[in-house]
Amino acid sequence: MILFMAATVWGVAFVAQSVGMDYVGPFTFVAVRNVVALAVLVPCAVVMDSSRRKRGVQEQVHPKENKRALAIGGICCGICLFAASTLQQFGVKYTTVGKAGFITAMYLVLVPVFGIFLKKKTGLKVWAAVGLASLGLYLLCITTGDFQLQKGDLYMLGCAAIFAVHILVVDYFSPLVDGVKLSCVQTLTNAVLGAVMMLLFEQPRLSDVLAAWLPILYAGALSSGVGYTFQIIGQKGMNPTAASLILSLESVISVLAGWLILHQVLTTRELAGCALAFAAIILVQLPERVRR
Question: N or C: which end of the chain has fewer CB within 10 A?
Fold first, then answer.
């Protein structure tokens, strides 16, 4: 249920991100949404830590090792998340919500492919999923009759690749530290990087931020604050195959949200691409058959 709520929050967040770009620049949106997320996360971390101490719950690792892992893990996760969310924010400016959601969901196919570099075995099933995903992306993205990806599609593909790296980094650090604290450091890193880029490349105005208060509040409090925390907590407590499959529902929800809220409609060709991409996501997450 935690991971399904995260997928739902992320799917609808594509609408908020798309609407927010009508008022502010991408770096401003990323910076402010993460400040809002910190306002949600920090009190949660304090309350949960206080509750643990009252119950006498001990840390599972040495305190010094825990703090070091928390700092390194949070910064690494934050850098990955900043790069991915910034590319995503640029991407939603040039493509539809549904298409953005499905291309982003390709990180679930890329995770096992990237695992090759970590010396993890990759079977025929994964390469079949990559083929399905490639065909789906072709139908979804190349709609003008030529072989060129649109600008928004390229941004979203880069976003998917970095989200795949983010998943691997979270998988490594989440068993070592508290999930909410890791999310806090990750969000702080994201906010700082966003603020620096905002001041360097944009001219933010308070009036524009206030005009976009609703999409920023949703993206910050729910998508960044609640969604990524749910991801960290859910990944720690569930089988990775089932977790990834549930999170992949984000792409379906993004299409439904774009259709219901923004009245965006995909063509038959694009819907076929979505179907193939989602089939690839499901195929790559199916458990391997165990030989006797």
Answer: C
